[in-house]
UniProtKB/TrEMBL annotation, chain A:
Coiled coil: none annotated. This is Proteasome accessory factor B. It comes from the Bacteria. Keywords: Proteasome. GO terms for cellular component: proteasome complex. Pfam families: WCX (PF25583), WYL (PF13280). The keyword Glycoprotein does not apply. Residues 256-325 form the WCX domain. PROSITE patterns: WYL.
Automatic annotation (TrEMBL), chain B:
Keywords: Proteasome. InterPro entries: CBASS_pafABC_assoc_protein (IPR051534), PafC-like (IPR028349), PafC_HTH (IPR043839), WCX_dom (IPR057727), WYL_dom (IPR026881). GO terms for cellular component: proteasome complex. Residues 240-311 form the WCX domain. The keyword Ribonucleoprotein does not apply. Residues 144-209 form the WYL domain. This is Proteasome accessory factor C. It holds the Pfam family HTH_PafC.
Length: 329, 319
């Protein structure tokens, strides 16, 4: 049975636009059969099993396509007597709410959207921006803000942010540089943090039974969400940044080292020096330090251009390191 | 986090197109095409497709209607697609995170504006924007503000700059072009008159500077770097250094850009490209016995000689 429709659907896109318009315009749930009788492109003979099956496959594909695009397709029945599920789209759920951005605010959103260097999120940012434009927001593509951060994320970012929002546990393979094989970790993610240009996930490590943070760049392969949503409750107001920052806080510089640096050499040490006095052998620098081993590793790098006068902990550390290098080479 | 498929691309564009045109009666077709990032021909094809879509009944009063001429277009019937679709999770996340990044970047001028925009986007996105993502970038806010102001005023700059690769502090005059933040660090991109090239200067390595009276005039060949893959992108013209790295120093493969890492027993063989052998010497001497240099031979000799000479200073009395 074919309906004499004024328009014959020529493309899939056209059929999908008509499907969206049809489902937006109805308050009643429409069954697949009713939709087939209405929307151009679904014409088929329901009595012919093969034809009917082809229609059903087509309709399933179309529904999947709309859902993938983010169209909130509602399912329900028009009345308790109905057997078949019906479909509709609530305008309130479909439509982007009103958004009034001042010109400078719109410019900021435009700049933010083009900061993404990660392909997937760059596409998402520009399609988000397209929706704002469609809502009437005018975005100046030329606007700049003086300082432009390069915004980039690791591939694990999206799945982890989604899992944290949905409160779903995740598992992933994690490789630290000092260990050969990646280990599987199970985490209840509380949130994702960018600290000093690197991304971390903070949460409750199910195996260690403790709070842990993981660097996203060390995650190998895919992040898998496991179990149900709302599977855990993160602590109230978890200060995510502080969990990451406490591992890399500032070091107190209480030590004072004296080193002799040949004229024109050791530029980095000169930048660190709190005091410099010219002398016959070279310049005598005073350097404040926190970790003697760290300072020693930097001094050793300069070879004979730098000699440590004291204190002994720095001098001995330097001599020890030099002896090891000579013995090995 | 993959992009929409081609059909979805076009469908998404069509669903945006109706409200977009509705908000801008009489807009130039060319302008709309530019906003959607498509050719005018594609946009006209989109309009022709929309023209045959509409409400059930599909009669003259049901179909999407518009006045389209050689240059402009005005929608007169929207068939109910009067608003764009809501932001998806990925779209909300992408916009919100980038705005937070921007708000956290020191020196971006009016932070209030960014915060206001962020709040409005978060409201419009609803629970799609609820992902717990925090951003904190370090930085010397005052210094960045100063540099941003210099870039804006468009003056040349005389500065004392520390180059880590050569371990030298030099004075140079530069023509500032822009400020960028990469991996949480601020850089001034400028034409360096001394090197006669575009350079990225780490702001925390500028030891002193003076704003000159003359204008910043980067020559035409001054092209900004592509920093999407980071700041240091070693090319094949740089010298290749081969190392044997033990467990304790494996971190260097994460900290520095390396070419190749291969397992060799309990250690790893690592190759990396370096701008300057002096830099490699300073790094490798400092790393201690956990790292052995395999090549080039020149570097091997250099490290041995330098270490021996350095050690002599502590054994010879009176020196």
């Amino acid at each position: 049975m074919l309906l004499a429709l004024p328009i014959v659907s020529r493309t899939r896109t056209e059929r999908l636009v008509n499907l969206v318009i049809c489902l937006l315009s109805t308050r009643r749930f429409l069954t697949a059969a009713q939709i087939a009788l209405t929307v151009p492109g679904y014409e088929h003979d329901p009595e012919d099993p093969r034809d009917h099956e082809a229609f059903q496959r087509k309709f399933e594909r179309d529904k999947a396509e709309l859902r993938e695009l983010g169209v909130p397709l509602e399912t329900g029945t028009a009345s308790v007597f109905d057997q078949e599920p019906g479909y509709r789209i609530a305008h309130r759920e479909y439509a982007l709410p009103d958004i009034l951005l001042e010109p400078d605010e719109a410019a900021a959103v435009g700049i933010a959207a083009r900061l993404w260097q990660h392909a997937g999120l760059a596409a998402a940012a520009s399609s988000g921006l397209a929706k704002l434009r469609a809502a009437g927001v005018e975005v100046d593509p030329q606007a700049t803000l003086g300082v432009e951060p390069v915004v980039t994320v690791d591939p694990a970012f999206g799945p982890l942010a989604a899992a944290a929002r949905d409160r779903r546990a995740v598992t992933f393979s994690y490789r630290v540089p000092e260990v050969d094989d990646p280990a599987t970790r199970r985490l209840e993610p509380w949130g994702v943090v960018c600290w000093r240009g690197r991304w971390y996930v903070v949460g409750h490590d199910r195996d260690r039974a403790a709070t842990r943070c993981f660097r996203l760049s060390r995650i190998v392969g895919a992040v898998k969400a496991v179990g149900r949503t709302d599977a855990f409750v993160p602590p109230e107001n978890p200060d995510l940044i502080s969990h990451v920052a406490k591992w890399s806080g500032p070091v107190a510089h209480n030590g004072r080292a004296t080193v002799i640096v040949k004229p024109g050499r050791g530029a980095m040490l000169r930048r660190w020096a709190t005091d410099a006095v010219e002398g016959p052998e070279g310049d005598r620098l005073t350097i404040s330090y926190g970790d003697a081993e760290y300072l020693a590793s930097k001094i050793v790098g300069y070879g004979p251009d730098v000699r440590v006068e004291g204190p002994p902990e720095v001098r001995d550390a330097v001599i020890q390191r030099l002896k090891e290098v000579v013995a090995r080479s | 986090m993959t992009g929409p498929r081609p059909t979805g691309d076009r469908l998404g564009r069509l669903l945006n197109l109706v409200p977009y045109l509705l908000a801008r009666p009489g807009i130039l077709v060319s302008e709309a095409a530019a906003d959607f990032g498509v050719t005018e021909k594609t946009l006209r094809e989109d309009l022709e497709l929309l023209w045959v879509c509409g409400l059930p009944g599909y009669g003259p009063g049901d179909l999407i209607d518009m006045a389209l001429d050689d240059t402009t277009v005005t929608i007169s019937h929207d068939a109910g697609i009067d608003r764009p679709l809501r932001l998806t999770q990925d779209e909300a996340l992408a916009l919100v995170v980038a705005l937070r990044m921007l708000a956290e970047t020191p020196g971006t001028g009016n932070r209030d504006v960014i915060e206001r925009a962020l709040a409005k986007i978060e409201t419009a996105a609803g629970d799609q924007a609820d992902a717990p993502v925090e951003v904190r970038l370090p930085g010397n806010e005052k210094r960045l503000d100063e540099f941003r102001a210099v870039v804006e005023r468009g003056h040349a700059l005389r500065m004392t700059y520390y180059t880590a690769a050569r371990d030298e502090t030099t004075e140079r005059v530069v023509d500032p072009m822009r400020m960028v933040m990469v991996d949480g660090r601020a850089y001034l991109e400028a034409w360096c008159r001394r090197a006669e090239g575009t350079r990225l200067f780490r702001v925390d390595r500028v030891d002193a500077y003076e704003e000159l009276d003359e204008p910043s005039l980067p020559p035409e060949e001054a092209v900004p770097h592509d920093v999407s893959e980071g700041v240091f992108r070693p090319g094949p013209e740089l010298q290749l250094v081969t190392l044997r790295v033990g467990r304790g120093s494996r971190w260097i493969t994460e900290y520095y850009p390396v070419e190749e890492v291969t397992r060799s027993g309990d250690e790893w063989v690592v190759t990396m490209r370096v701008t300057d052998l002096g830099w490699a010497q300073r790094l490798l001497l400092g790393l201690g016995p956990d790292v052995t240099v395999l090549g080039p031979p020149e570097l091997l000799t250099r490290i041995h000689d330098q270490a021996t000479a350095a050690l002599d200073q502590y054994s010879t009395p009176g020196r």
